[in-house]
Specification:
Gln_synth_N_conserv_site, Glutamine synthetase, Gln_synth/guanido_kin_cat_dom, five-stranded mixed β-sheet, ligase
Amino acid sequence: MSLLSDLVNLNLSDSTEKIIAEYIWIGGSGMDIRSKARTLSGPVSDPAKLPKWNYDGSSTGQAPGEDSEVILYPQAIFRDPFRRGNNILVICDTYTPAGEPIPTNKRCAAAKIFSHPDVVAEIPWYGLEQEYTLLQKDVKWPLGWPLGGYPGPQGPYYCGIGVDKAFGRDIVDAHYKACLYAGINISGINGEVMPGQWEFQVGPSVGISSGDELWAARYILERITEVAGVVLSFDPKPIQGDWNGAGAHTNYSTKSMRNEGGYEIIKKAIEKLGLRHKEHIAAYGEGNERRLTGRHETADINTFKWGVANRGASIRVGRDTEKEGKGYFEDRRPASNMDPYVVTSMIAETTIQWKP
């Protein structure tokens, strides 16, 4: 008699050319990831060759019941680390039957910015640092924390090792390898300052692909925590008090910044970002005011400042960039629950297209 695990792990290529495509999209809250699967006649590597599909938008907060159909447009393909073989994950965005992007479709507007000739010429690179918190399922309290109580103060947990310092490493490592398998440009992981909190990095990725890859990585992480019986939280301040919040620091450079004399371009870009500070903050994640307090490695939400190697600044420039006179900078303002399509495209639009 086969075990359930045997059936889940069946290799379909032994008996059929058909594959399973998991269509993934973002629901009405802007952070709820949804997905459903369909059978295709054979392997596909080009999203343009995938069929469009639809779903009930009234059940995701994206359409009224009397006109509930929302259309999925396939945009990016990744290998499926859960089903493996030729099976795929498909990142989609969402449209009305008439072909108009629905209000929660942030990818469409981002793609327009990234396809502008001025932006294309600058080849914008992004490195996204996604922080997140693992919570115990029934009590929604961080993994490894005593029930109803607190662990020792912050200090030993950041990049820490040991049963009393690192909680959930099996989930983190499984996610790391699954992302590499999927073809996501994941560049690293580390334990964060608050126990039960971790970070992974995606990039450097060019333009719209950075958002596609981060959403795919978020989907894979939520599927892994589902298997592990742990709750995944992207709340920017999951525990009040003297504990670090969770951000999504966004590292950024353009071709001009990476070339000789790039440091002057970087300073001009940072000046532009300062002039539009309020607009960026408004788009950088819900509940960010609980995180950006001026403490715990943040700048105050109402203050814009930048500095070299300053983790208490809105924008941090690395020592290597200052020394070499070219490179990248880090926008430390985005919250862990930010939409990468919004943040990456907004940074490009402000620094490349916008004329103050």
